[in-house]
Write a structure and sequence with these properties.
With 95 residues, this protein is an all-alpha fold. It has one domain. Helix content is 49%, strand content 0%. It contains five helices and no strands. The chain has helices at 5-13, 39-48, 50-56, 68-78, 85-94.
């Protein structure tokens, strides 16, 4: 199944106040953004919505992504380490 339904259902069940950004692609697209010829396009896509929203978020806001390449793009573009939804669930259960 493609989509975010499972993750948003889980976050809702955890009673987290969350926002799903309507940003489209993060720009990394696997190895695409790592390639020198595509770097500018990759960063332009990330700067449309995703990276500015993360920079504007409060310091205690969790940034969650399940995509490995999205996590790389977020960390490189903002310095913030995003969490996988499984890490968020682990924190909720064990902390």
């Amino acid at each position: 199944m493609i989509g975010t339904g499972t993750e948003t259902h889980l976050l809702g069940r955890m009673e987290l106040d969350y926002e799903l950004l309507k940003s489209g692609c993060c720009g990394m697209a696997g190895a695409f953004g790592f390639e020198e010829a595509h770097y500018d396009v990759s960063m332009a896509a990330a700067e449309r919505v995703l990276l500015p929203a993360i920079r504007q978020a409060d310091a205690e806001t969790l940034v969650i992504t399940n995509g490995f390449s999205c996590a790389e793009q977020i960390q490189a573009g903002t310095g913030q380490k995003p969490l996988h939804v499984a890490e968020v669930l682990h924190q909720a259960v064990f902390h």
